[in-house]
Design a protein that fits this description.
Layout (H helix, E strand, L loop, with lengths): L5 E7 L4 H17 L5 E7 L3 H12 L7 E7 L17 E5 L4 E5 L15 E5 L10 H4 L1 H9 L1 H9 L3 E3 L15 E5 L5 E4 L2 H9 L5 E3 L4 E3 L14
Length: 234
């Protein structure tokens, strides 16, 4: 059998270097256990669910990605502001996005919104909080992300009731906010936007557009045309 090059990217909201190293070691452990050859593992910090959503989309649409791509997502606040017993948190969800692309982990924001139309099947991991541990991204996610990649292991998880098919994907993965917003500002200070359909015509008509934006949003308004043919922002 030909070896499939696999890239596992664990995107997490922790900036703790030692914690990320531990997570990477957990993947190495399970990659060896399930004999997933030709695998590269990377743990990447993120700042928000929007940040994760953009990274997921960029990795999936990368023309140079490997034969198999696994995206493990961890960005979850406690279920309640005051916390929960044993710091138990929301369930993990696993998605088959076709073309040998898989995603798994928390779903508390925009993590999969920008690739929602690619989701072929979505599953809830019914055993997410089985250990009653706050370190689920270390103790639960690496093993189950790898098992979800492997057809025989996925079938076993489904048969054992650990994976439950989600009928309504929209109940878990929200739509993209229908307002123009900043996805990111790259190292070259280029602003990358998501342009809402309602703004598209105005953007095409405007010769000069002024933007005022925060970390995750953009305020766009062509406004009134001035004498020099430009537009003023609100």
């Amino acid at each position: 059998m030909a070896r499939i090059a696999t890239h596992i990217v664990h995107i997490t909201d922790t900036t703790d270097r030692n914690a990320r190293l531990k997570v990477e070691s957990a993947y190495v452990k399970h990659v060896g256990r399930y004999r997933l050859r030709g695998t590269h593992i990377h743990v990447e910090p993120a700042t928000s669910t929007l940040d994760i959503g953009v990274a997921v989309s960029e990795l999936i649409h990368n023309s140079e990605r490997p034969g198999r791509l696994a995206l493990a997502i961890n960005c979850a606040p406690p279920d309640r502001k005051e916390g929960t017993v044993n710091n138990a948190r929301n369930d993990f969800f696993f998605a088959d996005l076709g073309d040998n692309i898989f995603a798994g982990g928390t779903s508390n924001g925009l993590e999969l919104s920008y690739v929602k139309n690619r989701i072929k099947a979505l599953y809830r991991l019914t055993t997410t909080n089985s250990l009653g541990s706050q370190f689920r991204s270390l103790q639960i996610l690496p093993e189950h992300m790898i098992r979800f990649l492997l057809p025989a292991e996925r079938k076993k998880l489904i048969r054992d009731g650990a994976l439950e098919r989600v009928a309504d994907i929209g109940s878990i993965v929200p739509p993209i906010p229908e307002r123009t917003h900043v996805l990111e500002v790259d190292n070259f200070q280029n602003i990358k936007l998501y342009v809402a359909a309602s703004d598209w015509d105005r953007l095409q008509r405007a010769q000069n557009v002024a933007f005022g934006f925060g970390r995750d949003s953009v305020e766009f308004e062509p406004g009134d045309e001035k004498a020099d043919g430009s537009f003023k922002a609100l």
